């Protein structure tokens, strides 16, 4: 059942992308109703700060880990022919 669902999502990447965008918009919209009177951090005063912070953090981790994998894990094309 889960395999069918994942296959369905792989065949429709636009649906998955727009569902993530809709969730991000929902998170930022929900943040308008948050209580900001007792903020402990300067980012708590900004609407949508934590949603954008999470998005940027995830994208930065993806770029960093992909770069690290190219440097550390990637082998030459003829590595196994040697």
Q: Describe the largest sheet.
A: none
Shape assignment: flat
How many structural domains in the coordinates? 1
**Segments where pLDDT lies below 50 for 5+ residues?**
none
Report the C-alpha radius of gyration, rounded.
20 Å
The assigned structural class equals mainly alpha
Per DSSP, the total helix count is: 3
Percentage of β-strand residues: under 5%
- Topology pattern, helix = H, strand = E: HHH
Give a count of the beta strands, DSSP E runs of length 2 or more. Answer: 0
- The proportion of residues forming helix, as a percent range, comes to 55-70%
Overall mean pLDDT: 87
Query: How far is the N terminus from the C terminus?
Result: 44 Å
Keywords: Membrane, Transmembrane, Transmembrane helix
How would you portray this structure in words?
The chain is mainly alpha-helical and 82 residues long. It has one domain (2-75). The chain has three helices and no strands. The protein has helices spanning 2-11, 13-31, 49-72. The radius of gyration is 20 Å and the shape is flat. The chain crosses the membrane at residues 15-34, 46-73. Keywords: Membrane, Transmembrane, Transmembrane helix.
Walk me through the topology:
Blueprint: H1 2-11, H2 13-31, H3 49-72
Transmembrane segments: 15-34, 46-73
Keywords: Membrane, Transmembrane, Transmembrane helix
